[in-house]
Amino acid sequence: MSNPDIRDFTRQELAGALIALGEKGSKIDKVFNCLYRKGAESFEALAGVPDGVKAKLAAKYGLAPAPALEKRVSALDKTVKLLFTFPDGAKAESVVLFNKKTVSACISSQSGCACGCVFCATGALGLKRDLKPHEILAQFAACRREAGRQPDSLVFMGMGEPFLNWANVKKSILLLSDNKGCNFPQTRITVSTVGVVPVIRELAASHLEIRLAVSLITADEKQRAELTPMSGKYSLKEIIGASRHYAERTKKTVFFEYILFDDLNDTPEHARKLLALIKDVPCKVNLIMYNPVPGGTAFTPGRFEKGKAFQDILVEAGIRTHMRREKGADIAAACGQLSGDAAR
Ligand code: SF4
After folding, report:
1. How far apart are CA 344 and CA 329, in angstroms?
2. From 1.10.4030.10, 3.30.1360.40, 1.10.150.530, 1.10.1780.10, which CATH number describes the 6-60 domain?
3. Which of 22, 242, 296, 310 would staple 271 via disulfide (CB 3.0–4.6 Å)?
4. Domain limits of the chain?
5. Residue 299: its pLDDT value, please?
6. pLDDT at site 187
7. Segment 199-212, tens digit of pLDDT
8. Of 329, 247, 315, 240, which is closest to residue 278 (Cα–Cα)?
9. How many Å apart are CA 128 and CA 258, to the nearest integer?
């Protein structure tokens, strides 16, 4: 079995390992600087690190080769989609979104997804495997190169359910925010879940400063059961309860995502149902028009006028609500469209 990748360990873990090997733990700061700021791809390239330390690290750890990268650029809005193929053939996608003054990176936590939401291209793939921290960080580094600077925000809304790969995602967040590494603020990281209740509660009890987005999809339990098999595991009541607990404990706003499907869940009655469900949670709602997926599904996107009327009901009740303008639809880079196929 090959050695574990050195980029899958936090600075504290590696410092501890060096001390155990008779070296000063502080030497790891230089290693981090080379790996995460200078992009070193081999142990020999760890500039300024004594040869003895390099040898000890190389004996214990590995450095996987960079994934193969394909790129597509939207003719509509310059959104960039990046397709990564890792050495074992597993694929993942990231998206770089250029707004007026800001840049946002959307990255994947898994190759494929086990949740099987029927409207989502990633769900149709099934789960190939979890991504390791270094594979998540490779996506961030490629997005940063594409943006030409550090993105302003980072969202785990690409392929996969981050809370079903929480150990690796959590470690990647610690690495991303390490001030000797990428130094990306946790407060600018959002993790989106379809509602894995135990991890929402774990996050509430943690010291992480990240933001939580919960993809409700719809506010009707029966409808949700038809849209995502995950609903069989955690009910809307449990998800809202955990979200409220998170908001109370962390004093942070929860972002609820609601997907508008034409004539399915976009009427004023549905808006009032959503309102009744979330009214006691400090939250903001993001309304997302369903994005058709390659190969097609039985669903059609919500219409703008109906979406606006839906939004007005929430806003009048005092709920901050944003109708998200999807980007990259011509290169299948919008929400729910990632299929791991560069040609789409
Ligand atoms: S919507 Fe999210 S959780 Fe559902 S199948 Fe797609 S990637 Fe997985």
Report:
1. 10
2. 1.10.150.530
3. 310
4. 6-60, 68-331
5. 84
6. 98
7. 999 999 999 999 99
8. 240
9. 27
**Neighbouring C-beta atoms of residue 179, cutoff 10 Å:** 11
Collapse the DSSP code of 43 into the 3-class scheme (helix H, G, I; strand E, B; otherwise coil) and give the result: coil
Residues with CB under 6 A from ligand 1: 113, 115-117, 120, 122-123, 159-161, 194, 228, 336
Report the distance separating Cα 63 and Cα 41, nearest Å. 7
pTM over 0.85: yes
Counting residues of the chain whose pLDDT is more than 90, the rounded percentage is 81
Contact 273, 200 (CB under 8 A): no
With the most atoms of ligand 1 within 8 angstroms of its CB, the residue from 109, 117, 129 to mutate is 117
Residue 257 Cα to ligand 1 midpoint, Å, equals 12
Q: Do domains 6-60 and 68-331 have the same CATH topology?
A: no
**One-character DSSP codes across 214-237:** EEEE-S-HHHHHHH-GGGGTS-HH
Q: Could you identify the residue written with the tokens 């606006």?
A: 308
